[in-house]
Amino acid sequence: MNTDIAIAILATAITAGTPIMYAALGEILAERAGILNLGVEGMMLVGAVSGFILALHTSNPWAGLLLAMLAGGFMALIHAFLTITLKANQVVSGLALTLFGTGLAGYIGKSYVGIRLPESFRAVPVPVLSDIPIIGPVLFNHDPLVYISYFIVPALWFLVFRTRAGLNLRAVGENPAAADSVGINVFRTRYIYVIAGGMLAGIGGAYLSLHYVPVWVENMTAGRGWIAVALVIFATWNPANAIWGAYLFGGLDALGLRLQTLNVTVSPYFLKMLPYIFTVLVLILVTRRNMLSRRGSPKALGLPYDREER
Amino acid sequence: MKKVGKKTLWALVATLMAALMLAGCGGSGGEEDKQAGPGEEEKFKVAFVYITSAGDAGWTYAHDLGRLYLQDQLDWVDASEIVENVPENPADAEQVITQLAEQGNKVIFTTSFGYMDPTINVAQKYPDVTFVHCSGYKTADNVGAYFGRMYQARYLSGLVAGQATESNIIGYVGAHPIPEVIRGINAFTVGVRAANPDAVVKVVWTNSWFDPTVEKQSAEVLLDAGADVIAQHMDSPAPQQAAEERGKLGIGYNSDMRAQAPGAVMTSPMWEWGPYYVETVQAIKDGTFDPTPTAGSLTYWGGLKEGLVKISDYGPMVPEETKQLVEQEKARIISGEWDVFYGPLKDQNGEVKVAEGQKMTDDEMLAMDWFVEGVEGKITAPQF
Q1: Alpha-carbon span B174 to A102, nearest angstrom
Q2: Does B37 have pLDDT greater than 90?
Q3: Which distant-in-sequence residues (6+ apart) come within 8 Å of B238 by Cβ?
Q4: From CA B6, how far away is CA A88, in angstroms rounded?
């Protein structure tokens, strides 16, 4: 019985953590390029609603997923244009993007509220692997988007830390002037990663509307975009850490609910606070060990780059 | 310096754009054609204040259906003015309600608990306008308080759940531990036990009114704990979908949730505000509206008899025998012969709270803060 509960909590942690993880991975890319995008919540919602609408009309969740990525990318493009080309304040633009995205998603989704999706992403147990005791039901009895995330995380880690493109990306985020001087196109790099980040946020939103709760309801992300922003710091801008952080943050929710049926009561407000406490603790740790230069935030994060001010 | 100005300008433009977008969807639903043209008699304006968008498929949606019914029934009424997504803090709510009063609305319905004090405050300044507030406990000369006896519909749905369960464990996803929700859980449990004395109702609190992801997780937790029927006091259909995915059954809430989880939902307790809105607006126009409390602290607390609450049509899995039982109990409540919280009623510790032959008063029901026997769960806010 106890292992059953443990398995259920771990499996729920993965499903609850996956949408946050996608969004956080996207934000890691954008922030590695030096652009802070606080519009994650807005991009997720627009991804969720547009993916839902197309999936409803085509009866194909994959088509919906594709549109969710494009929609998330488009939202990010607005942020990129404002902050990279026009050099607007990134915090202001990001917050505006969240407000805009929340409103826009509510507006276009108005006539789709409460409709059931005929075809959604469903759990597909992986043959053989899902039969392994404990590990099988925890890791290999999920929907395709979870399996995709198993590949995306190492791929992004490899991209950021082991490829030339990743080196360029980090250079742009650390010191755009130096990157520019060695011939890296700072503007193009930033555009690419901000948009890619938006696409991942779009997937995060679509995970909710195309799989977890396959209906569209306004504000269905319920603040998960902000958890994703905190997760980026928790993960110290490293895609590989995002996976643990996402499962931890997702697992906390699941744990709190499960404790109730076991007659153990933990304050839900305390549990809701924990992700942010962890984030602050991680910030303190990395600063104290003076590792900011190696593991901490990209140096040029939040600063617009202007060639003439070089 | 010039550059900074430009940046700020663009940021401002972006913010404005977002604000406009929000206003565009959250703003009033004023329709041009409803405006009184020259020479046409001016219509009786009725406005509604909503906590979320009418598209939430839940609480606000039910009120909005009532508004549309009102518009449809009384052609001398202009009920096109709605303000959605109004926060419950005094500053925002008072400003919105004041504005509606200024715009010449004769009746303003404020449809969330948190609007109670703002409504009372604004009403003092506009004695010619009638305000009607939903789910609160304060009235004034021009402020009525209304609500519905949802517990009666919940009792009926409990009968359906009690007859359907095989594991004798029924899961209930609750929002916040407040009297309204507790009363619903208790009424549901009384129904469950009337149909099946061996069954228990397990409760998980989401501590939120709306978070589909957590709602679904809560239902999954209850299913893991052995529940084979999932009931809910939440707006989204997520708990029902969790039940459907596991091949289990459910009882929805707020709207007919068979649309979102046809394989699971047996029936859903629902609100039916329309007739009350028609009746109230008519009474206000005729000058016969009296906000004096009649049921506890409420001006109006309608139930099955008044048609303010009901249960939706049944899913195909509900047997004829259950339907008959529900009809029989419904008739008993409507006739006034019996109501849900008539004794004997025991609490979770087996202590008699309402003795045989006694019944709870409206005030006691409105302040309910204990669970009846058969509920598994805790009300008290956890201390860690």
Answers
A1: 26
A2: no
A3: A213, A215, B212, B213, B215, B216, B219
A4: 8
**CA distance linking residue A17 with residue A39, whole number of Å:** 19
Between the two ends of chain A, the Cα-to-Cα distance in Å is 64
Give B171 to chain A, closest Cα distance, Å.
Answer: 10
Subunit contact A266:B378, Cβ cutoff 8 A: no
DSSP state of A12: H
pLDDT of residue B4: 47
**Residue B295 Cα, gap to closest chain A Cα (Å):** 34
E strand map for chain A: 124-125, 141-142
Chain A / chain B CB contacts < 8 angstroms: 172
Q: Cα(B340)–Cα(B305) distance, rounded to whole angstroms? A: 13
Of A8, A237, A12, A30, nearest in space to A146 by CA: A12
Dihedral sign for Cα atoms in the order A90, A159, A139, A144: positive
Number of helical (H) and strand (E) elements in chain B, helices listed first: 11, 16
Q: Tokens for A105, please give them.
A: 């998603």
C-alpha pair distances (Å), B112 with each of B66, B116, B142, B146, B221: 15, 8, 18, 11, 30
Question: Tokens for A31?
Answer: 């922030």
**Annotated domain spans of chain B:** 43-148+273-302, 151-269+310-376
CB proximity list for A180: less than 8 A, separation 6 or greater: A186, A305, A307, A310
What is the spatial distance between Cα B231 and Cα A56, in angstroms, rounded to a whole number? 27
Residue of B56, B207, B241 with shortest CB distance to A113: B56
Over chain A (310 residues), what is each successive 10-residue block's mean pLDDT? 81 92 97 96 97 95 97 97 95 96 91 84 90 90 94 96 95 94 95 97 96 86 90 91 91 82 77 82 72 68 82
ipTM confidence: 0.82
Asked if residues A220 and A45 have their Cβ atoms less than 8 Å apart, the reply is yes
Give the Å distances, CA to CA, from B322 to A25, B247, B326.
51, 20, 6
A60: helix, strand or coil: coil
Token pair for B206: 């989401």
Phi, psi (5° rounding) for residue A247? -70, -35
- A255: closest CA of chain B, how far (Å): 9
Domains recognised in chain A with CATH numbers: 2-309 (1.10.3470)
Q: How far apart are CA A256 and CA B6, in angstroms?
A: 48
The answer to whether B258 contacts chain A (CB < 8 Å) is no
Beta-strand pair B309-311/B269-271: antiparallel
For domain B43-148+273-302, give its CATH number from 3.40.50.150, 3.40.50.2300, 3.40.50.300, 3.90.1700.10.
3.40.50.2300
Task: Decide if pLDDT at B2 tops 90.
Answer: no
Q: Which residues pair with B269 in a beta bridge?
A: B311
Query: B151-269+310-376: what CATH class?
Result: alpha beta
Structure tokens at B175: 């929002």
- Residue B26 pLDDT level (bands cut at 50, 70, 90): very low
Scanning the structure block, which residue is given the tokens 């518009």?
Answer: B71
